[in-house]
Amino acid sequence: MSRILLISDVHLCHANWYGRTSEARLEKMLIDINEEHKKQPIDMILMLGDYSLDYWECPPYGTYSVNGISNTQRFIKEFVSRFPCPAYLLPGNHEQYTHEDWERLTGFKRQFSVVYENNLFLMLDTFGDNLDSKEHNHGTYSFGDVDYIKAEMAKHLGKRVFLCAHDFFFATETEEFKKLVRENDNILALFGGHTHVSRIEPMGPELGNKCLFRTGEYSYTSAASVDESVWGFRELILEPDCVSTAYIIPQNEIKLKDQIINIPYHKQDDAIIKTF
Question: How many distinct structural domains can be found in the chain?
């Protein structure tokens, strides 16, 4: 059995949320990850973007676009370096770095694949247009790269496939992408962040009745329900005869509108993705 964590939207930046500075919040995240690793080893962590607000629209907070300061790089050096297992990072809508800058600062391509045992994780760059824009924006959706997905699947025939991106905008996605997901039985599930909630979203027959699993956040939210938006990360359990997932919410104490809320450790959104 293998165990993978998917984490998104950590936003190392100027702001305090839930009563903690960014630094204190991410130190808590490290504690939570390491506690999970002690309970059951984590084989790798997949991070789905928004490590900062490096290209945020309001100066001086767009630290890279305005001042050339990369909080994404700082996040890797100060926090990812202390993860208990390998980690792989794709860009979010707030990381509008050029391909060259992204690779120089992070060591990763903007789009790449990760092969783990009999599983293929396609780390897709769905915000790869209008990079390094000098006009303030929240990122430009660039659609799922069908040619790349097909090429990687052809290289790794027979592997179980998981599509990971900062987000998928299905309302405007290409028909070619939808057809590929719908008609390929090896594609088991999609994972995305961006919305800062944990949720299972069935995609219906247009995408083969597969699901998008939201990875929550470790920063802030505007969601009405604390249950869907409190800090945490999604686990993916890979077994020879079963693939399953759940959203893990570590024990926490948060401050929300001057109210202290105690969050007990629990899991939610438990689901069997597929049995074999």
Answer: 1
